[in-house]
Specification:
The protein has 153 residues and is of the alpha+beta class. Helix content is 25%, strand content 39%. A hairpin with a 2-residue loop joins strand 1 (5-17) and strand 2. Helix 2 runs antiparallel to helix 3 (122-140).
């Protein structure tokens, strides 16, 4: 059987509400942040906003680009190797009202420590650390939302 390689491009959001970060719990047991593949002709930035809205019901806004993660995995059937690049964006939400789509059984805004502990995949934990650093830097420069001053809750 020939093994094939497929490249996938996805985008996602690290969504903050104050100093809490959005996590989604898959019915399979995984804790993740919102992300999915790009639609044909869609930019990563647009896809990230769309996916956050579709997966959570939240109308987030993009604050900055965090950068990509890359990983490889194999599909169980067919021997296909997927080489996936995910473009991540720092986002903010004015609402905590999460309405998860059918892929998830719940969503939460977790403290930073909880999020780092709960995330299933190490590459998600690493990009979250980069997102936290960027969020802190932006707040130190005075980029926080006037309706929610920075706090360490």
């Amino acid at each position: 059987m020939l093994k094939t390689r497929v490249r996938e491009t996805a985008a996602g959001g690290i969504v903050f509400y104050g100093w809490r970060v959005l996590l989604l719990h898959r019915k399979s047991g995984e804790w993740v942040m919102p992300k999915r593949k790009l639609d044909e002709g869609e930019s990563p930035a647009s896809a990230a906003l769309r996916e956050v809205k579709e997966e959570t019901g939240l109308a987030a806004r993009t604050l900055d680009e965090i950068g990509p993660t890359r990983h490889r995995y194999s599909r169980r059937h067919g021997g296909t190797t997927i080489e996936k690049t995910v473009y991540w964006y720092l986002m903010e939400s004015d609402s905590q009202r999460i309405v998860p789509d059918r892929s998830f059984d719940r969503g939460v805004f977790a403290t930073l420590q909880e999020a780092l502990r709960l995330l299933t995949h190490s590459n998600d934990r690493e990009i979250l650390k980069r997102g936290i650093a960027l969020h802190r830097a932006r707040n130190a420069e005075g980029h926080h939302s006037p309706s929610r001053p920075p706090s360490q809750s």
